[in-house]
Write a structure and sequence with these properties.
Strand order of the largest sheet: 1-2
Number of domains: 1
């Protein structure tokens, strides 16, 4: 299987499920930084804070790696091991969008990929 994607975790998910696939990195590697947030009008804001604390903890990040996600903590190894090492051997280009840029990018995605107007 060959797929061109910037979401290495999707390929890792397939590999962990037993698919005959692997990934390789090309320069540059784009890394998108995302946020964790709770709605200001959440019915249980303290539960949202606890969930955020858990998902950012070593235990929470380790749980996510079992599903092929890349951990955001440097003290949690990827699954399979070595994914970050392979990415860091290339030119990493961090991409950080502000709220307006993220909203615009989401609209473009919906229009181009999902086939829905913005």
């Amino acid at each position: 299987m060959v797929a061109l994607t910037n979401y290495v975790n999707l390929t890792i998910n397939q590999k962990l499920a037993g698919a005959a696939t692997d990934f390789f990195t090309m320069d540059p590697v784009g890394v998108f930084y995302m946020q964790v947030a709770a709605s200001a009008q959440a019915p249980h804001p303290n539960a949202a804070r606890l969930a955020t604390n858990f998902i950012l903890s070593v235990e929470g990040q380790t749980m996510l790696t079992r599903r092929g996600r890349i951990p955001s903590r440097p003290d949690v190894e990827t699954n399979p091991p070595g994914v970050l090492k392979a990415l860091h051997e290339r030119n990493v280009m961090p991409i950080q969008l502000n709220a307006e840029q993220e909203k615009k990018a989401d609209g473009i995605f919906k229009e181009l990929i999902a086939g829905r107007p913005r």
